[in-house]
Design brief:
Layout: H1 2-23, E1 29-30, E2 43-49, H2 54-67, H3 70-73, E3 76-81, H4 86-92, E4 99-104, E5 107-111, H5 117-125, H6 144-170, H7 174-203, H8 222-263, H9 269-275
Parallel strand pairs: 1-3, 2-3
Antiparallel strand pairs: 2-4, 4-5
């Protein structure tokens, strides 16, 4: 009876310990694409990881222990699964796993120290992050460039989900899914090209489509019109007078040249000797 009572007590203790372990809530916050603006306020330590990454799996126990000190250090401890949140992965340009960022009041610094609980605590308590140069505003997560990169990563994940839906649920073969995306890419490129050409033609029209510009496009006053008409008539009269004078000069020169030509005919000396 005593042995059975002890065994029963041990079972109750084991169950209570298991329930306490399951009921214990993790101090690590999980961030998503729509929550990234929370990083712009306060102080954060964010880990980017992937479930399949062995180095990330080794880091998780230390990260959980460090998160228990978050309230005392007045810092938020969070993590991001890059396989589920591609937007945040693109916004921070994650090229290696795990990657840890320190964020404070909109400034972002990449942590490159040792990955133990004590090192994390010293990094925050001793403010070692001040010795690290923050990320440039051009490449900061809140910049336009990184926002575009985030949208591109989200688009790639959406295309991946569509490919999985077409091949697994609809039953389309892999090559058929690729053909659908190729046609969609071609069609969207044509539409964007037409829109760009239309906008360019509206902003900077070509010269052949521009209306001709005449120097006298405006309506002239009656006095100006009469003056121009009078000037044209005088110019035509002067041209006629010049042409008449030229004709008279040609006739006079022709008349004078014919007698002179007769009088100045050269005489052959040999012919004159023969006649004598």
């Amino acid at each position: 009876m005593a042995a059975a009572g002890r065994l029963r007590a041990l079972l109750w203790l084991a169950l209570a310990a298991g329930a306490a372990a399951l009921g214990k809530r993790s101090s690590v916050k999980v961030l998503s694409d729509g929550m990234w603006r929370e990083l712009l306020q306060g102080e954060w330590m964010v880990e980017f990881y992937a479930p399949w990454c062995p180095a990330c799996q080794n880091l998780q126990p230390e990260w959980e222990k460090f998160a228990e000190w978050g309230e005392d250090l007045e810092v938020n401890i969070a993590k991001v699964d890059v396989t589920e949140q591609p937007g945040l992965s693109g916004r921070f340009i994650i090229t290696a796993l795990p990657t840890i960022y320190h964020c404070k009041d909109g400034e972002f610094r990449r942590y490159q120290g040792a990955r133990t609980k004590s090192d994390f605590i010293n990094f925050i308590s001793d403010q070692e992050w001040k010795s690290i140069e923050p990320v440039s505003s051009w490449f900061g997560p809140s910049s336009f460039l990184m926002s575009s990169m985030s949208a591109l990563f989200q688009l790639s994940m959406w295309i991946r989900h569509c490919h999985g839906y077409l091949t697994e649920n609809v039953g389309i073969p892999v090559w058929g899914s690729y053909a659908v995306f190729a046609l969609a890419t071609l069609f969207s490129g044509l539409i964007l090209g037409l829109i760009m050409v239309f906008l360019a033609d509206c902003i900077c029209p070509s010269k052949r489509h521009r209306p001709p510009q005449y120097p006298y496009s405006r309506k002239l006053a009656p006095e100006s019109a009469q003056l121009l008409k009078k000037l044209d008539e005088e110019q035509e009269a002067d041209e006629e007078d010049v042409s008449d004078d030229e004709m008279e000069g040609k006739e006079v020169s022709n008349g004078n040249s014919s007698p002179n030509a007769v009088r100045q005919r050269p005489v052959n000396p040999a012919a004159a000797v023969d006649k004598s």
